[in-house]
Design brief:
This protein is of the alpha/beta class. Helix content is 44%, strand content 24%. The protein has five helices and five strands. It has a five-stranded parallel sheet with strand order 2-1-3-4-5, with helices on both faces.
């Protein structure tokens, strides 16, 4: 059975490209895509499959990554949250971890490393 993934990112080209890449991995299925945290909140109310892992962009309009991660952590505590950003500043990383993320990945991560990291997150929780 495939591991369900959700993606929240305001850059549509990146969002769609990441979705296609994850679908090309053998054991992942993207079940929800959202442009920001508010969009995700609306989609989660009608979502039949709750993602097991949620990839969250840090910098988004309307509702940023920290607020989005905190909301998911409060309302869907079983979802493993992964911050995904270009920003590698300590303050940002700490903010996302405090909001409930179990991992912080940079957007320039190689696809093989991303797949390896997602497998670790799914099996070990971090």
């Amino acid at each position: 059975m495939k591991i369900s993934i959700g993606i929240v990112d305001d850059h549509q080209l990146f969002l769609k490209s990441l979705c296609m890449m994850l679908q090309s991995f053998n054991n992942y299925d993207v079940v929800i895509e959202a442009a920001n945290g508010k969009d995700l909140q609306e989609k989660m109310t009608t979502q039949k499959t709750i993602p097991e892992i949620m990839l969250i962009d840090v910098n988004m309009p309307v509702m940023d990554g920290i607020a989005t991660a905190a909301w998911i952590n409060q309302n869907y505590p079983s979802v493993k949250l992964v911050a995904l950003s270009q920003n590698d500043g300590d303050k940002t990383i700490i903010g996302m971890i405090k909001a409930g993320c179990c991992a912080y990945l940079l957007k320039d991560t190689h696809p093989n490393e991303l797949e390896k990291a997602l497998n670790e997150i799914y099996t070990k929780g971090y």
